[in-house]
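From the shared-data thread, chain only:
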Amino acid sequence: MKSIKVLLLALALIPDALMAQVGEHRNDFAIGGSIGYTLNSVNFVPTIKQKQKGDMMFGFAARYTCEKYFTAICGVQAEVNFWNLGWEENIEDGTNNTYRRSLNYVQVPILMQMGWGRERRGMKFIFEAGPQLGYYLGGSSEKGGGVWDISHRPNNVTFQYDNEPYNKFDYGIAAGIGAELSTAVGHFIVSGRYYYGLADIFDNSKKGVFGRSANATICAKLTYLFDIVKTKDDKIK
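Structure, as tokens:
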């Protein structure tokens, strides 16, 4: 319940931030796409030993810049991203078994963004943070390492192998930093982001096996945005 309240508070602050314009007004709107790489693990309770599971991601982005407050360029960026999450177990029970689980999501982050540097031509530093919503599309699993034997798994936890996610909806908080190069042909952004999931994949009730099973994702990506609307001001640099 506390996780849902945190997410709702973050969503509620977005319109307030956009309306509270006390700096130099901007009316810039840009759209584009991104490609990158994710490293994901799942925070299981009871603990399951894992390696970071890596996979490609791609998506679409739209950014609205609303004002420049002192030296900070403020706006909001919304994205629709396709992520292959999941986990890769580090099985240490002497069986040589391997297990890799893929969980495909469409993820929609809505991030408040602040930048310091050049707006039109040149570099600027970016910080962004906000809520992220997701929906589970489907998945697959890969079992290997000879004869599959689950009789010696730590804590006898095996529920994760053959069961689909209990919750298809995912939500959490994302934050990251990046560098943006603005040119005459658009904006090129290199960024890194961390996503902390607040929703559990499996049932976390008293009847469930796991008390917690939420995604934790590191994402590195390259984004290209081109301007649709630009503030008309010759003084903007």
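The first strand starts at residue 24 and ends at 45.
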